[in-house]
Hints:
Elements: H1 3-10, E1 51-58, E2 64-67, E3 71-72, E4 78-79, E5 86-93, E6 101-105, E7 119-122, E8 127-131, E9 149-153, E10 159-166
Antiparallel strand pairs: 1-10, 2-9, 3-4, 5-8, 5-10, 6-7, 6-9
Amino acid sequence: MSTLSSALAKMGILPKVVAENDSSVGQTSSPNALDPGDKTYDANSTPPGTRHCGQSETFSGSDITIDLTDLVDDEGRALDGSGLKVQEVLFQAGDNNASAITISGGDADPYELFGSGKSIELLAGMKNQQRCNDKLDDISTGTGAGASDIKFSGPSGATFSYQLILG
């Protein structure tokens, strides 16, 4: 099993996201897993999906912005998504959040997951999984001209997690 598949299995993700030249696929699942259903991602799939990352966050009084050019993959290595696209995403709000969290493109270099200027809100315990099918812009850099930031807004103490498949 490839390193990517092993890392995905550890996170409870249905390991249908496989690295290039990896034909072994385990069978694990969890209620918090990104479930690509019948979709298999690899370097040769349409659309391609070769990198995965995800983590949990807690608000401490201000917005949280993730920069898709400065991520950490499942094995703790730096992951620069430049030139890739978000192919599938899972966002989940914490079960005990007091109010909704809002997800939108970032302020400086917005990566518009939901359309230009659009956002979504997740109430406590809600999940949003989106298959993007190679329709979004490439992740790029350049303050004011790039497309690399996703912003999360919510009350102090609220939690959320995200998982991304890039390709």
